[in-house]
Write a sequence for this structure.
């Protein structure tokens, strides 16, 4: 089976700093893959390359059979429709209501009638447990609720792949668990492939099918959560156990 | 070379380096702004066009600017009447009856377009830079991109169109209200009937003056929208970055209005406006 997402030798530098150094990773359809690593390890940079906000200096990224850096304008729009992104702080449009945020792409790119769009928005908001908040403004919602609206917006067009940037950061443990359940539910019920950037180990063990750990611009570990648990690489162990002492410098 | 001479030399090298960096940055910014402006114009003709968002911008840029534009132009007209009328009367009694000509030509050709645009650069430009800048630093612009929406198309085009459509309208109203202010002072201070003020104004102001003034404000509107949105797009570094972007959007817009006013006026004179 060929992978749905294929990252080949991706290198990204910022001036003299090499953030990603020939990174390789494959993600199969229907998988939930967590990319973990300490702050500043390049997780978000990798994500931004995968959603075409950055362009790698070297290497290729193929998603659903397409080299995402060789798309023309039309193909790029199609690629965007196939992917949904949940940003770290949700990045909801604060000049639009929850309804307008969730229906943003539906209004712009589909020919659905107003009532059909309303039904879809209702369904997505129900899925994230926020039915009845259609007319609220993002600023009036807690960060946890904003993240759930962000997730509803990301899945409005029913994408094949969802990228989540630290979905449980900044939310309380209960809400974190709820967000995790939501990701699992989307994967299970809609068959969505999910890639999550995280440093939340509890969430990683709870949700991930496979885990890849970034360290010094390369993947130090790739495998299942079980393999991660039993891995004896001191760098991996230090991160998994959250120890301040070990081969990885903390500060 | 003595130690003192070496220190002076090092400082001079550093100063030249800074000047060089400044010049390079200026050219880089001008180049980037030109590309941004060209892209904005290109995206005007792309679909989908968000009519609801455009109407929102018309309201923000145009309707909400009317009070600022009108109150200030009314008082500018009155101040002009006061400041010109009294010395003229001292020079020659009865000459204030030509106040309508003086105030109207100044209002139509320069004062209303430039002053109103400068005021709107403060009101509208700061709002645009702050809003777009906040969207930039909170990843909302990245979110737009991932939602298959070009940020220039969605954010810059409606602001640009709203500015080039509504700012000339506000300027037109400012011309009328400014003249009304002048007429009020002429009547109450110098006993000049409104009809005489209007007749005097009609004698000197012709269509080309009006076209010159209003056309200028189209350019000023475009400058405010493009500079402010562009500056917002380049904001970085959280609240401080948004603050800096807002300041530079307003300052650069005002400077650009004043500098371009000279060149546009010169160009219009060449074509007989």
């Amino acid at each position: 089976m060929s992978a749905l997402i294929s990252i080949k030798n991706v290198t990204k530098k910022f001036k003299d700093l090499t953030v990603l150094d020939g990174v390789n990773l494959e993600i199969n359809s229907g998988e939930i893959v967590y990319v973990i690593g300490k702050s500043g390890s390049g997780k978000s940079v990798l994500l931004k390359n995968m959603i075409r906000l950055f362009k790698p200096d070297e290497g290729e990224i193929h998603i659903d059979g397409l080299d995402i850096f060789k798309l023309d304008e039309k193909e790029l729009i199609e690629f965007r429709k196939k992917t949904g992104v949940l940003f770290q702080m949700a990045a909801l449009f604060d000049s639009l209501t929850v309804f307008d945020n969730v229906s943003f792409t539906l209004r712009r790119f589909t020919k659905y009638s107003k009532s059909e769009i309303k039904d879809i928005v209702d369904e997505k908001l129900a899925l994230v447990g926020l039915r009845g908040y259609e007319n609220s403004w993002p600023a009036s919602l807690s960060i946890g609720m904003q993240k759930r609206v962000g997730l509803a917006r990301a899945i409005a067009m029913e994408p094949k792949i969802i990228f989540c940037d630290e979905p449980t950061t900044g939310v309380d443990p209960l809400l974190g668990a709820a967000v995790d359940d939501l990701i699992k539910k989307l994967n299970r019920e809609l068959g969505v492939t999910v890639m999550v950037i995280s440093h939340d180990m509890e969430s990683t063990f709870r949700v991930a099918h496979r885990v890849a750990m970034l360290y010094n611009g390369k993947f130090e570990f790739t495998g299942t959560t079980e393999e991660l648990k039993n891995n004896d690489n001191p760098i991996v162990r230090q991160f998994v156990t959250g120890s301040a002492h070990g081969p990885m410098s903390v500060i | 070379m003595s130690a003192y001479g070496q220190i002076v030399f090092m400082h001079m090298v550093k100063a030249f380096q800074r000047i060089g960096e400044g010049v390079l940055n200026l050219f880089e910014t001008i180049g980037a702004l030109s590309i941004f402006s060209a892209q904005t114009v290109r995206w005007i003709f792309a679909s989908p066009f968000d009519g609801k968002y455009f109407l929102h911008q018309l309201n923000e840029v145009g309707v909400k600017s009317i009070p600022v534009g009108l109150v200030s132009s009314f008082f500018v007209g009155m101040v002009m009447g006061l400041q010109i009328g009294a010395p003229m009367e001292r020079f020659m009694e009865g000459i204030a009856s030509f106040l309508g000509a003086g105030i109207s030509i100044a209002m139509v050709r320069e004062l209303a377009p430039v002053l109103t645009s400068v005021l709107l650069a403060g009101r509208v430009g700061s709002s645009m830079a702050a809003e777009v800048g906040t969207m930039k630093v909170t990843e909302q612009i990245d979110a737009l991109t991932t939602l298959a929406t070009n940020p220039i198309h969605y954010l810059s085009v409606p602001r640009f169109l709203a500015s080039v459509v509504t700012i000339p309208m506000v300027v037109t109203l400012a011309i009328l209200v400014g003249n009304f202010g002048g007429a009020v002072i002429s009547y109450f201070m110098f006993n000049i009937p409104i009809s005489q003020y209007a007749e005097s104004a009609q004698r000197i102001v012709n269509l080309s003056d009006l076209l010159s003034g209003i056309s200028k404000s189209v350019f000023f509107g475009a400058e405010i929208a493009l500079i402010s949105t562009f500056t917002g797009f380049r904001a970085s570094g959280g609240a401080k970055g948004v603050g800096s972007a807002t300041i530079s959007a307003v300052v650069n817009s005002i400077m650009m209005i004043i500098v371009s006013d000279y060149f546009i006026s010169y160009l219009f004179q060449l074509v007989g406006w």
About this structure: Chain B has a mean pLDDT of 93. Chain B touches chain A at residues 48, 50, 56, 131, 134-135, 138-140, 142-149 (CB under 8 Å).
